[in-house]
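> call design_seq(struct)
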C-alpha cells in the first residue's frame, strides 16, 4: 500500500510553546488514520501544517509526493480540509450551493457538472437538495458539507470532528459515508475526533498525541493489547497520563 501522506518530523515552535515536536507518521492509500489527543495536544497544529495553513518550524510532510514546504499549491490540489466549525450558506438551496462550490474548484463547466453529480450521489439528500439549507437538520448539513469536500475526489481528506453534535443515526451515516469512500474509491482520510467509539469503528490505525509528541501509533487492536486495555478510551488515558 503506497503512502498518500508522509509526515516527516514536523515541529512548530510558537514564542513560548512547542506545539508540535518531531511528529512522524504516514497514511496509506485508502487508509483512515485517526489523530487523537487531549485539547492543546498538537492535533490542530499538525493538521494545519499538513493542510499548508501554517508553516512548520522544522521537518516536512508530503501529500501525493508533494512537499508542504516546497509545493504547497500542489498539496492543496491534492487535499480537502473540513474543519469542525465549517458551515454552508443557509440562504442557498442545496443544489445551488454545490454548483457554487464546484465553480470555485474549476472553470470548466463539464468538470463542474461532474463534481456536482458526484456530490449529489454521495450526500444522498435527493429531492431535499431543492430546498434551502436553512431547512436542513444538522446531520443533513454535515452530509452536504462532506459531499462538497470530496466532490473533487482528493487524494487525502482531512476531517476535524466529522460527527460533532450529531445524533446517533446521523453520526452512523457520516461514518458509513467515510468508510465507503475509503473502501470503494481508495480515498485516504486523516481524522481528528474525541469520540473513541467512532475512532474504533472507522480508523484503520490510530495515532495518540500529547504535549506535541506522537506517543503511540497502531491499530485499535494492537494498542489495546500493548496497553492491556479493554477499549480505546483506556488506551488513551494510559498513553496520555504516562501510566
Amino acid at each position: 500500500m503506497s503512502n498518500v501522506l508522509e509526515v516527516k518530523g514536523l515541529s512548530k515552535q510558537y514564542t513560548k510553546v512547542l506545539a508540535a515536536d518531531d511528529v512522524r507518521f504516514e497514511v496509506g492509500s485508502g487508509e483512515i488514520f485517526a489523530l487523537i489527543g487531549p485539547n492543546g495536544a498538537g492535533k490542530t497544529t499538525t493538521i494545519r501544517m499538513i493542510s499548508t495553513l501554517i508553516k512548520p518550524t522544522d521537518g516536512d510532510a508530503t501529500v501525493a509526493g508533494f512537499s508542504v514546504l516546497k509545493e504547497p499549491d500542489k498539496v492543496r490540489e491534492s487535499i480537502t480540509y473540513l474543519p469542525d466549525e465549517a458551515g454552508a450558506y443557509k440562504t442557498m438551496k442545496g443544489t445551488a450551493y454545490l454548483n457554487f462550490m464546484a465553480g470555485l474548484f474549476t472553470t470548466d463547466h463539464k468538470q463542474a457538472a461532474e463534481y456536482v453529480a458526484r456530490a449529489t450521489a454521495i450526500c444522498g439528500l435527493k429531492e431535499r437538495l431543492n430546498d434551502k439549507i436553512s431547512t436542513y437538520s444538522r446531520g443533513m448539513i454535515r452530509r452536504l458539507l462532506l459531499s462538497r469536500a470530496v466532490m473533487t475526489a482528493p487524494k487525502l481528506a482531512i476531517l476535524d470532528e466529522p460527527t460533532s453534535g450529531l445524533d446517533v443515526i446521523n453520526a452512523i451515516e457520516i461514518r458509513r459515508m467515510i468508510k465507503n469512500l475509503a473502501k470503494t474509491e481508495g480515498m485516504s482520510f486523516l481524522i481528528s475526533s474525541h469520540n473513541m467509539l467512532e475512532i474504533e469503528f472507522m480508523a484503520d490505525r490510530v495515532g495518540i498525541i500529547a504535549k506535541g509528541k506522537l506517543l503511540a501509533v497502531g491499530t485499535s487492536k494492537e494498542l489495546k493489547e500493548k496497553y492491556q486495555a479493554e477499549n480505546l478510551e483506556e488506551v488513551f488515558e494510559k498513553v496520555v497520563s504516562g501510566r
